Amino acid sequence: MKVLFLILARGGSKGLPGKNCMPLLNKPLIAHTIECALQSKYCEEVFVSTDDDKIAETARSFGAEVPFRRPAELASDTAKSSDAVLHAFEYLENHGKVYDLLVLLEPTSPLRDVRDIDEAIAILDKTPGAFFCVSVTKAESAHPSFLFTKDRQHFVNAYLTQDNVVRRQDLSEVFYPEGSFYIAKVLPYKSEKTFYKDGLTIGYELPKWQSFEIDTLEDFFIVEAIMTAKNNGKFNLTR
After folding, report:
1. Is the pLDDT of residue 66 over 90?
2. pLDDT for 164-200, tens place per residue?
3. Quick one: average pLDDT of 197-219?
């Protein structure tokens, strides 16, 4: 089974400019994802798709391959990540590299564990009828039953119609994709251009502490604090 490890890292972040190269515990943010991918038993090489020279240089310095530059139209705020993935497929296939499985990683989720990636790959491989696998975490305080909309006069209204707000213990479990990894069999992905299809996608559950994504400066400080605490053994953070 040939597995493509692909990292999408464009240079035009609005929420936290330059975040992919920001130092997180003395390493650029993207380096944590590259190093995690390289530890996988399924990984032969890691490719980075970027439109940014600094990101490309940083990625190469930590062992990733950056053989092509992502076109500007595939790196805009409105561009679809699926189009960037298909662009990478096309380039690599034109250069003789054909893959059975795609593992898509985002630099903004540095708390992932390579053991989870390898286990998710194995689960997908042995599950009949499954084409995709995404990492998810449980929605607790953000459960839809607790959510409200707000009108122009600032009055709140229940997002879901119900007579009373139910107890958390009584709620059915719901999950959201938290961004650590997205895995797909290549041929179905090319056809569907998504990782999400009812009855075809496996949800691999991760704990809440692993599920923080870095989109803002506040996120950055939260992730840095968790990584520091974990590295110092101050908290028993289990998988």
Report:
1. yes
2. 556 666 677 889 899 999 999 999 999 999 999 999 9
3. 93
Indicate the CATH number for domain 3-139+174-231.
3.90.550.10
Report the pLDDT averaged over residues 110-119.
Answer: 96
Least confident of 5-14, 38-47, 61-70, 168-177: 168-177
What HEC string does the chain produce? CCEEEEEECCCCCCCCCCHHHCEECCEEHHHHHHHHHHCCCCCCCEEEECCCHHHHHHHHHCCCECCCCCCHHHCCCCCCHHHHHHHHHHHHHHCCCCCCEEEEECCCCCCCCHHHHHHHHHHHHHCCCCCEEEEEEECCCCCHHHCEEECCCCCEEECCCCCCCCCHHHCCCCEEEEEEEEEEEHHHHHHHCCCCCCCCEEEEECCHHHCCCCCCHHHHHHHHHHHHHHHCCCCCCCC
Contacts of 196 (CB under 8 A, 6+ apart): 132, 134, 177
**Spatial separation of the C-alpha atoms in residues 118 and 180, rounded to whole Å:** 13
